[in-house]
Design brief:
Two copies of one chain form a homodimer. By secondary structure, the first copy, chain A, is α+β, with helices and mostly antiparallel strands. Chain A folds into three domains: about 260 residues, BirA Bifunctional Protein, domain 2 (2-Layer Sandwich); about 100 residues, Anticodon-binding domain (Rossmann fold); about 70 residues, Translation Initiation Factor IF3, CATH 3.30.110.30. The first copy, chain A, is about 35% helix and about 25% strand. Chain A has an eleven-stranded mixed sheet, with helices on both faces. In chain A, strands 16-15-17-18-19 form a five-stranded mixed sheet, sandwiched between helices. Chain A starts with 8 loop residues before the first helix and ends with a strand. Chains A and B meet through strand 2, helix 2, strand 3, strand 4 and strand 5 of A and strand 2, helix 2, strand 3, strand 4 and strand 5 of B.
Chain lengths: ~475, ~475
């Protein structure tokens, strides 16, 4: 397995927290379960935002902003929704020094407050489809939290669309899922499995939840993003009606979908190693760091000057490059420091390189070094970055292939401890059989979207009845 | 006064709410004082964000994200800060179904939670300056709210910087003020007065508050943005210390600064007229709307096809152009509709224009029409948009000049009702005299930054003692 190794389950939690903090991705907050997203991680988030926001606008979506406070009574309106979210609410009871007549909930998700507005905005078929997204913070009261992966407050985008027909809503939910796949595979270099959630794992209030699931380096699955076909559930709860083309009053069909700052945690867990973080070039805040090497003061000036010029040339070529000009630390310290922070390429520049008009390029993923002529950097470095991007994806794909198993019987899941990963399992579709996966702390991650892949190859691994689907099972974050 | 007229004070509130809602900028929310920012206004906000965020990054600032919840005890730490914000807090007392041991405050501003982190992050002079900004929502419990201008929840950017010396902090606060001036004058086409706040009007916890103030079309002033020199107040309250270059332990000097979604309200009030909204081209989501005019079906197809081509050509030239292809409404309805929504340029295209290879361009600000050869549009339209941008600023500048007066005595402020605007007034610097402006519902908007402009021309208009400054007085939002 090229360059990527599995992390022992017990050690991962500690390693993860250590990397997140040493790489200055996040810091704990005085409020339990909340976190500070530091500039280095926020910059990764901005890169995710920019890519996704551009694609959403290209596909006709607009951004808006809905209030952070939701009247408590709103959450009650959709029956399944309230069951799903009631235990996780943060509640404002006092404002301006007085007790409120009706407590306000800090949004755990915005369907309810948004459908209240859609009831006013949607009157005619001409108002549809309504394709709105918002970038916002949300709060869910969590007991066990982990930086990025599960925090009480997190950042996300939440899309909320309304359509004239059920088919259009399904098409939208699938379109967004496809965007998420591109985002995660092409930008974050993390391969995904696409599928539908089992009824038990669906979003509270959804008719169907589509999901993308990835494998982390400890063999556990992480849900990367979800896209929900909400049917007419929220339109009904909030009495959204439109006059259709044929003069009939109908209720729209809707979707909602989200990816969150959890994706930053996924980057750590999917690519990181014993040296620390490893960022895919397309989302790395710094793609190339130039480390100057010198002994004398004269060398120092010459090397630093050339390093500055090279960084400027690279930036003109669209590369996010910087020089580490710190004087208080050695080159060796800098090598380790930037490796720990996951910068994909390091360029070393010393007096001999200067004389030879070259730099020595070191890849963070393979640790291989190669000399590169200075004159070729503006062409070679972007190529090299794309090579690293592709290699990271390939490596993660191979890692997943090596951690994919079959569970012919429920007892086969006992192997999850020693051989964590994705297990293909035939399932009858029954909730009772699904519940039994809990004996091994496993869950159905998804029913594959691909029909071929979802076709059962035999009877249910749990009860032995006819198989309805082949599903992906794993221990998950 | 070219094209811009004053709006009668009483009628303005109604006109404003009407424009904000009809132009689909915002909608009321079921939670009193909160609002929904609709896509059209959010797009203006994105344009403001993009411009300012680029400038902040160019000047070395980084974005981060701090928690929305602040322990109640944190707010208490800085004496003036708590006095200023305590009456405005929204308080979370319950989470996950249980009462919290310590209530959490929904951030009204983030100094306290941020300085708690800075105390960990700032250890050495090498960690300074620390230049961090965040784009976030904040909540202040307001009694009287108005869409955009004063809402319980609003969106803003808040910058928080820490520096090794007092001078550096002042330089930073002034640098940001200069960026705000550029944003508001060059992008929003609204002239500003720059100055310092009187001690009474300072931010709670600041040593000096710099402000930019603009005149709205009803003659009232609006505070557009502020930049605070916080001295060492928050560093002291949160025990932030660094080891300086000379080996001494010192406390950093800091700043904070913000502009908010209030700026969208300012656009309405500074440029709007009886037809509705008027957006400066640089921030208008749609800069040019093409309205096709036709009678027969054959005409319709030819005109619509050409309109689509022209819009595509304009978009390639960097113009945000769209065709209004609605069939259910007349061209006249469309003219009014887009005028109401403030689109700066309308292009009319009918069969005769098609034959003459021209369009008729109508400016929203002057209502003037002129024929333009189609072939010249990719060059002429961007020029015309810049002309409109400059004209709007010029018009607002003239409006302000016509609404600038002098108050030689306190009683002169009685004219504020009939002649609202900015009043220059000599002031002794005393709080008692400042308080008396309240008799006329006026406040000191700022002490001009420009020394010449701030020099008193005589004795205090209120008490007759020696003047310390010439200040700007107005009724304000």
């Amino acid at each position: 397995m090229a360059g990527i190794t599995e992390l022992a389950e017990g050690a991962v939690a500690e390693w993860y927290n250590d990397v997140v903090q040493r790489a200055q991705l996040a810091d704990y907050s005085p409020v339990r379960g909340c976190m500070v997203i530091r500039p280095y991680a926020y910059s990764v988030w901005e890169s995710i935002q920019r890519w996704l926001d551009d694609r959403l606008k290209e596909t006709g979506h607009q951004n808006a902003y809905f209030p952070v406070f939701i009247p408590e009574s709103f959450i009650q309106r959709e029956k399944e929704h309230v069951e799903g979210f009631a235990p996780q609410l943060a509640v404002v009871t006092h404002g301006g020094g007085e007790e409120l007549a009706e407590p306000l909930v800090v949004r755990p998700t915005s369907e309810t407050i948004i459908y209240d507005a859609y009831a006013r905005w949607v009157q005619s078929y001409r108002d549809l489809p309504l394709l709105i997204n918002q970038w916002a913070n949300v709060v869910r009261w969590e007991i066990r939290t982990r930086l990025f992966l599960r925090t009480m407050e997190f950042l996300w985008q939440e899309g909320h669309t309304a359509h004239a027909t059920a088919d259009e809503a399904v098409t939208e939910a699938r379109l967004i899922l496809a965007l998420y796949v591109k985002l995660i595979e092409e930008q974050l270099a993390i391969p995904v499995l696409q599928g539908r959630k089992s009824p038990k794992e669906r979003f509270a209030g959804a008719r169907e939840t589509y999901t993308v699931e990835s494998l982390m380096r400890d063999g556990r699955a992480l849900q990367m993003g979800t896209s929900h076909d909400l049917g007419q559930n929220f339109a009904r709860a909030f009495e959204v009606w439109f006059l259709d083309r044929d003069g009939e009053r109908r209720q729209p069909w809707s979707t909602s979908w989200a990816v969150t700052t959890r994706l930053i945690g996924a980057l750590v867990l999917a690519h990181g190693d014993s040296k620390g973080l490893l960022l895919p070039p397309r989302v790395a805040p710094t793609q190339v760091v130039i480390v100057p090497i010198y002994r004398s003061d004269g060398q120092r000036q010459a090397v630093l000057a050339r390093a500055g010029e090279l960084a400027a040339e690279l930036r003109r070529a669209g590369v996010r490059a910087q020089v580490d000009g710190r004087e208080e630390v050695t080159p060796g310290f800098k090598f380790n420091d930037w490796e720990m922070r996951g910068v994909p390429l390091r360029l070393e520049l010393g007096p001999r390189d200067l004389a030879a008009a070259q730099v020595v390029a070191a890849s963070r993923d393979t640790a291989e070094k190669q000399p590169l002529p200075m004159a070729e950097l503006p062409v070679r470095i972007p190529q090299l970055l794309e090579t690293v991007q592709a290699a990271l994806f390939q490596r993660a794909l191979e890692f997943r292939a090596h951690h994919t198993y079959t569970a012919a019987t429920l007892a086969d899941l006992a192997a999850l401890d020693e051989q964590p990963g994705f297990y293909r399992m035939n399932w009858c579709g029954g909730g009772a059989c699904e519940d039994r996966l809990g004996e091994y702390k496993a869950t159905i991650r998804c029913i594959p979207l691909d029909e071929e892949e979802a076709r059962p190859t035999g009877n249910c691994a749990v009860c032995g009845a006819a198989g309805e689907n082949s599903v992906w099972v794993a221990k998950a974050y």
